[in-house]
Design brief:
The complex is a heterotrimer of chains A (253), B (442) and C (255). With 253 residues, chain A is mainly beta. Chain A has three helices and 20 strands. The radius of gyration of chain A is 18 Å and the shape is globular. In chain C, 45% of the residues lie in helices and 0% in strands. The chains are: A mainly beta (253), B mainly beta (442), C mainly alpha (255). At the B-C interface, α4 and β20 of B face α1, α2, α3 and α5 of C.
Chain lengths: 253, 442, 255
Amino acid sequence: MVNAMSAGGRLHGRVARVGIAIVALTALVAMRPVRAYEVATVTNGGSIEGVVTLSGSAPATTPIKVTKNQDYCGQAIPDPVYTVDGSGGLANVIVFLKDITKGKAAPTEPLALVNSKCMFSPRAQGAMVSEQVKISSEDTVLHNTHPQNADTNATIFNVALPFKGFSVTKPLPSMPMMIKVKCDAHEWMHAWIMELDHPYYATTGADGHFTIKDVPPGTYTLAVWHEAAGANTAPVTVAAGQTTKSKITLAAK
Amino acid sequence: MTRHGSLRVVAQVAIFAIVMFAFISPASAIPAFARKYSLRCTACHESWPVLNDFGRNFRDNGYQLRLGRDDTVTADPGYWPVAIHVAPSYVYKKVTNQATDQGNKDLGSGGVADAGMDLLTAGVLTPNISFLVVPTGFASNGNVHLESYWAYFSRLIKNSDWFNVRVGQFEIDLPASSHRNLELTDSFLLYAYHPSVPGGTNLAGYDMGANQRGVEIVGHDANSLTRYTATIFTAHDSLGSANGFDSPSFYGHLQKYFRFNDGPVSQAEVGLWGALANYPTQYLTNGGVPIAGSGSHLQSSTRYGMEANIWFGPLAAPLHLDLVYGHGSDKKDLFQGTADRSGSFNGGFLEAIWVPRADLMHWSVFGRYDLIRNQTQPLSTAPSNFNDQNQWTVGAVYTIAYSIRDEVALHAEISSDKAKGVGYGGLDQRTDSIMFGVDFVY
Amino acid sequence: MFYRVAQSILLLVGALLAGSAVAANTGDVKTGKLVYERYCLSCHGAQGNGQGEAAEYMSIKPRDYRQGTYKWRSTPSGSLPLDSDLEHTLLNGLYGTYMPTWRALDERSRRDVIAYIKTFSPRFGTEKPQDPIIIPPDPGYSVASVARGDAVYKKYNCAQCHGAGGQGDGPSAHELKDDWGNGLVPYDLTKGHVKCGDKSTDIYRVFMSGLAGTPMPTFADSLSPVDAWDLVHFIQSLSPLYAKNMASGETGGAR
C-alpha cells in the first residue's frame, strides 16, 4: 500500500490503519464522479447535531518520541490519534454529508493550519475544493507544510515556515481528495484535510460533538471519517428549521 | 523476382527464424556501457552496431556522460567493463568461374562459420582519460589478437571539445564505420579496393576499414554536429620505413550535420574525407632479405571523397540513407614493376537502414550497393574494366530481446558480388552468399 | 536485380515520406513514444512509473511520471512544470544520477518525447502550469554577499536539514522520504556540482520553486530576492567547484 510506504516501521500499525481508513474514504468520497455543486440560498435549513463515539476502549498509545529539536519541541509529545473523552466521544473525526448537490456557499474565511509546539493544529478538518488555507507557524524552529494526495502521495505543494510568526495562504486543489499533510523536518507531524465539493462538513471537538448547519431539508447519508478508526455512515433526515440529533460510532482498530 | 517468389522467400526466412529461435536461449550478462549507464543498446545505436546521434556524441566524449559517474571510482561498484560478442551463423557461399587445377569450376559450400569472439573492454580510467581494448579471435585456429587498443584523452586544451587525442590501434574515422556496419557477408569495396595488375602484386594492400596504429586528433562541437578527425598512422601491412613515423600515412575527415524541425527529413549530413597512405618501395637487405624498418622511396596510395547522409522520419525510427563516393589512386611503383602507370578508380556505396516504427524497435532492414569502376588500369594493356565490381547486400535483423545487460538478435542476409575478369581465364566472377545467424552480446 | 532493389528502396522512401508527413502534423505523442522506447524506457518504465528494468539498482530512483511531480521547475510549488522545464532537464541531465544529458538528440525528438511523457499524468490534461517564478538578475558574487548569505542561511534555518556546515547532516536529515517512500538525504552542498544545475539562477530557482516530491519546500513566500541572492552566493562559496569555475570565468553550467 502506497500509504504504508511513506512511514517508518515504528508507525507501521497505525499507518496500516490509516491506509484502511483512506481506502474506506476513497469508497465514500474521492472516487465518486464529480457533480457540480450549486450554491443556493438556504432559507429554512435545519441543523445536524451529533456525537461520534469510539466503541470499545481506545488502543493504548505511547507518546511520540521527539527525535530532533528537543530543546524546543520537548522530549515527547502525547499521541493525538485517539483523543477520547470520558464518555467515549472521539475527537478529530471529520463528519460530512454525502450526495448533497445544492446548498450554502463556501466559507469565506480561509482554512487555518497552525504549526504549534511541533504539531499541526487542527489535526483533521474538512475543506471545500479550491479553498484557501492559511498556514502559519508559532514555532521558532523550521517547519515545512507539505500536503500530499493521501491516495497517491503526490505533493500538492510544499512550503517552508522558517520562523515564528510567518504565515502564507495557499489554494487547495480543485478536485475533491483526501489530503495528508506532513512536515518533513519533523516526521511525526501529520494533519488531515478532507476536500469536498460542498461545504457541509464539520470536525468533532474534544467531546466528540459536531454541528452541521444550514442543511436544506431532505434525507442524506451522514458519513464520518477518522484517520485510524476508519469510516462509517448513518442515514439522517433533516426537517426545515429543526435540529436533528445523530449518534455514530466507530470501532477502534 | 515475382510477387509470388518474394513471398516464398519471406516464408523461408520466417521458418528459419523460428528454427533459430528454438535453438537459442538469450544470454543474460553485461555489455559494458549499457550496464554501466543503465541504458539499452537502442540509446546509442540506431540499429546495433550503427551509432545514432547520442552514441556518436558519447563516443566523441570519450565514452563519458560527464555527470559524475564515469570513472572507476564514481561508477557503481558492480560495473565490470567487459562485454562479449559472438555471432554464430550459417553461411552458404557460391563462387563462379573459380580457377582450379581441374579447370573452370563453380563452387558452392555452406556450414556454420568458424566464428570468433570479440571481448570488448572499455571504460574511463579517470575523468577525461578513457580506454578500449578488444581482444578478438578465439576461433578454432586458436589465434587471439588485439583488434583494438587505445587511450583517449578528452579536452586536452582549455576544457574544449575541439581537441581530443586518441593513441593506439583503432579504426580511422571513416564515413561509415566498417566495424559498426550491419552487413556481415561482405565488406565495403571502396575501403578495401586497390587497383591491380592481372596476376601481379601491389605493395599497398591495406584496407582502410581495418584498424590502424596511430594517433588521432578529434574535435567536435558539444553535440557532435560539426566534427573533424586528423590521423597519422602506419600503413599496417608495410614492411616498415626508416622514418620517424614508420610508413607515415595520413587521414582526415570533416563532417557537418544539419537538423530540420519540420518536414519529412529530420537530419542530413555532408562530409569530406581523404587518406594518403605511404609505402616504401626499396629496402636495405641482409642476405637478400629486406630488413624491417629500412624501407625508403615512399610511394602513395591515396583516397579521397565525400559523403552525404539523410534521415527520413523521426530519428528514433528513421530511414537512413548513406551515400559515399571516393576516388582512389595507387602509384605505379607500388606494383613492383608489373605496371606501366599509376592505377586509379572511382567507387562508392549507397546504404539504407530502415528502423520501422515497430514496438520497441525490434526490427531493422538494411541494404547496401557497392560499386567500383576503374579509371586507369595500372597495366595499360589490361581490359579497361578489369576488376570492376558491383556488390549488393540486403538483410534484416530482428532483435529478440534487449535490455540494459544484453542483446540477442536474429540476422538474415543475402549478398552478391560480381567482379570483371578476375575468374578463370579472364571470365567474370560472381560470389553469392546467404547467411542466417544469431548475434548476441552480453 | 539492381533495378529491382533500387525500385524497392524508392518505394520505401515514398511510403516513409507519406507516413512522416502525417506524423509531423498530428503525431507528436506517437513519435514521442518511439523516442521514449529508444532512450527512456529502461529506467522510467513502459508505464512511466519510474520502474524500468534498471530502477531496482539505482539509489536515486528514476522519475515516476504519473503524478506530474517534477523537481526542476521554473514554476511555483505545486504547479506543473512548463515544457521548457522538462526540456531543461533533458538538456542538462541530473548530475550524480543516471539521468544523462540528451543534448545530442534533435529538437524534434526532445519535443515529441516531452509530449509523450506528459501523457502519463492526467494533470497535464486538466491543469495549466502557473506562471514561472521571476528571477531578478544576479547582483554578483562577492565576499560581502557571501557573509550576508551566511546570516540568511542561519535565519532561515537551512541547517535544520542541510546542517550547520552545509554537509546535509542537520537534525532533520534522517528519516526523510520522497513522495514515493524512498529515503533520501539533504544535498551535501560542499560536494561540488549541484544536481539541479550549477548556474546561480539554478540555485535561486530551487529556493523559490522547491523540489516537488521531496522534503525541500519553497521559500518563495518568506525569502526576499535580495536575501535569496546572498544565499545563492553563500551556497556557491561552500562548493569547491565554484571557486574553480570563478577563476576560469565560468559561473556555472560547466560539465
